[in-house]
Automatic annotation (TrEMBL):
Residues 194-246 form the Cysteinyl-tRNA ligase anticodon binding domain. Residues 1-22 are annotated as: Disordered. This is DUF308 domain-containing protein. The lineage of its organism: Bacteria, Bacillati, Actinomycetota, Actinomycetes, Kitasatosporales. The chain crosses the membrane at residues 37-63, 83-105. Keywords: Membrane, Transmembrane, Transmembrane helix. It comes from Streptomyces sp. R28. Residues 31-178 form the YqeB PH domain.
Length: 251
């Protein structure tokens, strides 16, 4: 997979697809790291086309067996004469890959960083933080986390971008970087009725657990509930279907 990296002016986050490898090094410039939309879509289309073709090969193989699962659908599929069967499999697979590619682009994270601010763009929205707000940038598994100096979380986003490039970009602009969360040992597993949470936090965690069970259908709801918990001073991290929480010590 390819990524677009470069220095650009701190304009609209949607312009990250036109990142140049060359640019000024002035304090007003910023570094952008984002997945190439065209490469991502073409990769998914290619994978989909390959899977579609393999499905036709598998169907031809299944009908030769005395017994096999899905043999009925395989016979129906192979009743289509060649080359139309193979062509159709490739076309259908490529179409599904195109849909997956557009979804992947929509879900992908773009990071813009300068000394004055950090912008995280995902799902046609962006979060912006002043450079003086960000005390530490953390890689937590497959997530990029921004923390304040007091340990309070500013943002947490799933990230498929190359970690060495991200670390280098943040370090270049004067931010502290950590390859693991220094507060990881402070997290406690949430179960309904957990003591020590502020009023209203348990209900929000219950609602968030229900939203996460629905998967992508309620992903935006789970993100909004995370922000509500941050307003109460509760930091949340996920491990599979489990939620863990901590409360930074306030000065």
């Amino acid at each position: 997979m390819e990524w677009e990296t470069g220095r650009v002016g701190m304009g609209d986050m949607s312009n990250t697809g036109d990142v140049s490898e060359k640019g000024g090094a002035s304090a007003g410039d910023g570094t952008v790291i984002a997945e190439s939309a065209w490469v991502l879509v073409l990769f998914c289309v290619g994978c989909g086309a390959g899977i579609g073709w393999l499905a036709t090969v598998l169907a031809h193989w299944l009908v030769t067996l005395r017994w096999a699962p899905f043999k009925g659908p395989a016979k129906l599929l192979t009743s289509v004469p060649e080359p139309w069967l193979s062509v159709g499999g490739v076309v259908v697979g490529a179409g599904l890959g195109l849909v997956v590619g557009f979804v992947a682009v929509h879900e992908s994270l773009a990071v813009r960083v300068s000394r004055s601010r950090v912008v995280l763009g995902v799902r046609d929205a962006s979060q912006e933080f002043g450079g003086d707000e960000v005390g530490l940038v953390v890689r937590d598994g497959k997530q990029l986390v921004l923390l304040r100096a007091d340990g309070m979380e500013l943002a947490r986003e799933d990230c498929r971008l190359p970690w060495p490039r991200l670390a280098g970009a943040f370090a270049e602009h004067g931010y502290r970087w950590a390859d693991e969360d220094p507060y990881r040992e402070e997290f406690r597993r949430w179960v309904p009725g957990t003591p020590g949470l502020p009023e209203g936090a348990d209900a929000l965690l219950r609602a968030r657990a229900a939203a996460r069970k629905k998967g992508e259908a309620d992903a935006d709801d789970a993100r909004e509930l995370r922000r509500e918990l941050l307003r109460l001073g509760v930091v949340v991290r996920d491990e599979e279907k489990r939620q863990y929480w901590r409360m930074p010590q306030r000065p």
